[in-house]
């Protein structure tokens, strides 16, 4: 992963890592960060800790922080709405493109395998082929 990211960034590395997995991706993601980069932990789907040698942060002037939206809501309930509006605007403009894999419902076993293997990047949507409306 480190080599692919460095290659894609002209050797610099990424400025920001947003990690919702932790554990096994922590070290490689940290190694792929640029000097002065920021690592934001937003979850721990792997349920295993990421190990850190703090000297790495020191010599590369990097920062690791945790973020959970509940604390932002407590401090300022309007802030999450503003952030959501900004994110929607970025998606609408094409500046941010969500990664979505779509599979038919019949492939639910494959979808489950992808989710368990952690080989999937982004979101997975199962489609039913239904295109009508539901009335209550």
From TrEMBL:
An MF annotation (GO) of this entry: oxidoreductase activity
Pfam families (alphabetical): ADH_zinc_N_2
Regions crossing the membrane: none
Protein name: Unannotated protein
Organism: freshwater metagenome
